[in-house]
Every structure is written in C-alpha cells, then in structure tokens.
Amino acid sequence: MVAKGFLEDMGGRFSARESSEIAILPVPYDETSTWIKGADKGPLAVLEASSELELYDMETCAEPYRHGIFTAPSVEAGGLAPEVMVGKVKDAVTGLIDEKKFVVTLGGEHSVSIGAIKAHSEKFEHMCVLHLDAHADLRDEYKGSRYNHACVMARVREICPFVQVGIRSMSAEESEVVVREDMFPAHELRSRNNWISDVMDRLELNVYVSIDLDVFDPAFLPSTGTPQPGGMDWYQVVSLLRAVSVNKNIVGFDVVELCPNPAEKSSDILAAKLIYKFLGYIFRNR
Ligand SMILES: [Mn+2]
C-alpha cells in the first residue's frame, strides 16, 4: 500500500475523489525487471517528491492542481505473475475512466503499462501510443514470459499502432520488426531538424503516452533499473510532450521504471515534475 498522495499538501478539496478530474494510479510492482531491482519503490518515491513541487507552473502561468488530482488506492500485485498484474491494472484503470477521470498510471516496471493501454484502447477509438524509452521493448518473449518488461511494445502491437522516440538499445531480432517511419532513435534526434513535427505526423488524433524514464540520459535521471547512455534531455522531452498536448488529444499516460536511490533524489523530483508539467500542458485549455 502506498499511503501517500500526489501533491499531498495541496489540501483536501483538490485531492478528493469526487471532484478531481485527474487520478494518479500507483502500481508498486517489480517482478520481471532484468538488472537493478527496485522499481516497485518508484511510486512512493514520486509521491513523496511531489510534495516538494511548487503548485504554480512558471511556463504555463497556471496551477494545474486546481483541476483536482486524486491519488487512487494502489494496485497491489507484488509476487503475482505479470499477466495477472496486467489484468488488475486494466480493471483499475477502466474503473477510473468510467468515473470520468484522466488516468496517470505510475509504475513500477514497464509491464504495468500493458494493462493501462488495454483499458484506454477499449474506451477511446483510433488510439495510438507514443512510447518514450531507451529500449525498443519489442521482444515477443523474454526470460520465459511474454509479459516481461522487455516485451511491452510487442504486446502493444497486438492492441494499436505506436510511435517510438529516444530508443538506443535493441536486438537484431527486434530491428527486423521495427517500422522505420515510426521509430525516432536517440542518435538521430541531434541532427534531425523538425523531428517533433515528424512525430506528430505519425500519430493518430487520440494518443496515449507511455514514458519509460530511462528515455532520459542518465545524467538527467540516473535512478532507473536499466540505464543507457546517449539519452534525451529535459527540454527535448518536455518540448515533445508540449507539442503532443497542443496537436493531439491525449487520453492518458504512464510514467514507469523509476528505481529510487535514497542517496539520489533528483531523479524522483524529475519524475514528479514531469507528471505535473505534462498535466499542466494537457489541462491548459480544458
Ligand atoms: Mn527502458
């Protein structure tokens, strides 16, 4: 149980279930990750760091919390098989969408996203996924499971189209199933002009965004379970999220794979601020 709310200090009126437009769903799950363990501690670290954020966003001159941000009871799936966890996440997200909430799923390892994406795809027509990650996650099966965190996008491919940004690690087998126009590898972003508008051209109108925090360079976010050099910086990521918010209809998002280190808190605050800033972009004109 994650007994802490996002922006807990903002006061009861803005975090009440009934009146909030936004729901944060913590999923403290880490059973299939392949290197450094501890992504199950991610949600609590993000929620704790969130209380250090200013409620006012300088860039949008707005206070996104006024839309109401309710932190739902966490999905408890520790020790369960990933396919069972995915079903529990899907049910929890579906329930919140039925309550008319905009749902932010907070991992946990990346496989939690499969349940959230399934739930959204059943509620929103013509949906695609924008996937930010260091890893392609296109393995059909890994270490005996089709729901390993390395298989997330192979499962998403069975649900809806997707576009991948920031990728810099994959196998030869994965490279064979990549749709070239729908992948924006990290090494191309430096030299490629207008890559953000090229991403926009590949997206459907309804977009679900899945953010594996290892898309960031480890200089910006070291606390993650499978870090990779050569990643994106803060302004590249938020510029992309701002453009998607302006040009598309974002139906939901997730932030996954924070593996907190008690001696390194900047990763936790980055994750919390990213969520709050993205909500600010999305709810700017709502
Ligand atoms: Mn990754």
Structure description:
It is built from nine helices and eight strands. The two termini are 32 Å apart. Strand 1 (22-27), helix 1 (42-50) and strand 2 form a beta-alpha-beta unit. Helix content is 32%, strand content 15%. It has one domain: Arginase, Chain A, CATH 3.40.800.
List the helices and strands and how they pair.
Blueprint: E1 22-27, H1 42-50, E2 69-71, H2 82-98, E3 102-107, H3 112-123, E4 127-132, H4 152-156, E5 162-165, H5 172-177, E6 183-184, H6 186-189, H7 195-202, E7 206-212, H8 234-247, E8 249-256, H9 266-282
Helix pairs in contact: 1-9, 2-3, 8-9
Residues 133-135, 212, 214, 226, 257 line the site of manganese (II) ion.
The structural domain count equals 1
Q: What's the total helix number? A: 9
Bound molecules: manganese (II) ion
Strand residues, percent: 5-15%
* Shape assignment: globular
CATH C-level category: Alpha Beta
- According to DSSP, the number of beta strands is 8
Q: Which strand order do you get reading across the main beta sheet?
A: 2-1-3-8-7-4-5-6
Largest sheet: 8 strands, parallel
Q: How much helical structure, as a percent, in the residues?
A: 25-40%
Overall pLDDT score: 96
Roughly how many Å is the radius of gyration? 17 Å
Oligomer: single chain
Using brief descriptors, characterize the structure shown.
alpha/beta, Arginase, Chain A, eight-stranded parallel beta sheet, 286 residues, single chain, binds manganese (II) ion
Short description:
With 286 residues, the chain is α/β, with parallel strands linked by helices.
